[in-house]
């Protein structure tokens, strides 16, 4: 897995039953495979992250595969305007790759070797360190990309969080809808915001802690089920980060959008209202809610 692969993934539900529409169960099921995972909100982000992904993956301190995730059909099969860079700018930004490992008769290496207990553990440990390095490399590449594109990217993108009492956290295109709802609710004087992790692996713990610093309640939305677990994958990581930091925050988990079911603005508004209520009372009725399912 120390290959700098870049793969665009149109996220789709896992069968069975057969379904070709969007949810995040495909990549959440492989979150521990040591792939860097990036999630795009729209087509512009998908384009920009793909370019950055090559530089992240090929960094000699990383050398890990990177997946740029876009919501299947919602983004992969819709038309949207995108500002593209000149080819020369992209080539200059990426530069010519200088492979660390290559097929060279003068410097032979073993590829795809059998790795038994005497070495396997050390290989996995090296992958752990590479993923830690990816955290800083991503931030560096984000800064460099802004210089050529004028668009700044972050590990976590925050919307109206500074004075928010309640917030929704989600991945991908749903964040765009959540931002629109939050904007309308703030016009009514309601202090709500949106937290969108752009990078899921490596998990941006420090950025999550900073984003939630002033919140009283948080709804974490997962577009995948983690069967048999107390919460969805994203929510589990958030709660673990808060607990480790000794932070007390009212958090509940919403499972939504499985198999491509829409998450509507009305549903998001209800989630915000419930989160505001939890912020006021310090209590939640259900730790996990299934949003928009017939029961």
- In total, the number of strands is 10
CATH topology of the largest domain: Rossmann fold
Radius of gyration: 20 Å
Q: Between the first and last Cα atoms, what is the distance in angstroms?
A: 42 Å
Q: In sequence order, what are the helices and strands, one letter per element?
A: EHEHEHHEEHEEHEHEHE
Low-pLDDT stretches: none
CATH superfamily of the largest domain: Thiamin diphosphate (ThDP)-binding fold, Pyr/PP domains
Overall domain count: 2
Strand order of the largest sheet: 4-6-5-8-9-10
Helix-strand makeup class: alpha/beta
CATH class of the largest domain: Alpha Beta
Question: Oligomeric status of the shown chains?
Answer: single chain
From the spread of the alpha carbons, the general shape counts as globular
The CATH architecture of the largest domain is 3-Layer(aba) Sandwich
In short:
With 295 residues, the chain is of the alpha/beta class. It has helices at 25-28, 43-58, 87-94, 120-149, 174-186, 205-211, 233-244, 265-281, and strands spanning 6-11, 36-39, 66-71, 156-159, 166-169, 192-197, 199-201, 217-222, 250-255, 288-290.
Can you walk me through this structure?
By secondary structure, the protein is of the alpha/beta class. The chain has helices at residues 25-28, 43-58, 87-94, 120-149, 174-186, 205-211, 233-244, 265-281; strands at residues 6-11, 36-39, 66-71, 156-159, 166-169, 192-197, 199-201, 217-222, 250-255, 288-290. The chain has two domains: 6-149, Thiamin diphosphate (ThDP)-binding fold, Pyr/PP domains (Rossmann fold); 156-290, Rossmann fold (3-Layer(aba) Sandwich), CATH 3.40.50.920. The strands form two sheets. A six-stranded mixed sheet has the order 4-6-5-8-9-10, with helices on both faces. Strands 1-3-2-7 form a four-stranded mixed sheet. α2 (43-58) packs across α4 (120-149) and α5 (174-186) crosses α8 (265-281).
């Amino acid at each position: 897995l120390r290959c700098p692969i870049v793969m665009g993934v149109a996220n789709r539900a896992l069968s069975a039953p057969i379904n070709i529409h969007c949810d995040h169960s495909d990549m959440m099921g492989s979150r521990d495979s040591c792939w860097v995972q990036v999630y795009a909100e729209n087509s512009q982000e998908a384009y920009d992250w793909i370019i950055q992904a090559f530089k992240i993956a090929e960094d000699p301190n990383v050398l890990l595969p990177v997946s740029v995730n876009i919501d299947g059909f919602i983004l992969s099969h819709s038309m949207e305007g995108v500002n593209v860079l000149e080819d020369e700018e992209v080539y200059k930004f990426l530069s010519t790759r200088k492979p660390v490992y290559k097929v060279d008769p003068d410097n032979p290496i073993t590829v795809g070797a059998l790795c038994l207990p005497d070495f396997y553990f050390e290989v996995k440990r090296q992958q752990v360190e590479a993923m830690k390095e990816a955290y800083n490399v991503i931030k560096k590449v984000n800064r460099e990309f802004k210089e050529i594109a004028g668009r700044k990217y972050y590990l976590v993108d925050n919307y109206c969080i500074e004075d928010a009492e309640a917030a929704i956290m989600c991945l991908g295109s749903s964040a765009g809808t959540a931002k629109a709802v939050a904007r309308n609710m703030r016009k009514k004087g309601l202090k709500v915001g949106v937290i969108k992790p752009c990078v899921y692996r490596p998990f941006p713990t420090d950025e999550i802690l900073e984003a939630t610093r002033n919140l009283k309640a948080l709804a974490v939305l997962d577009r995948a089920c983690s069967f048999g677990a107390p919460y969805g994958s994203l929510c589990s990581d958030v709660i673990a980060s808060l607990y480790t930091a000794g932070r007390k925050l009212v958090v509940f988990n919403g499972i939504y959008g499985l198999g491509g079911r829409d998450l509507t603005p009305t549903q998001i508004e209800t989630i915000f209202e419930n989160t505001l209520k939890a912020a006021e009372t310090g209590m939640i009725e259900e730790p996990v809610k299934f949003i928009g399912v017939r029961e």
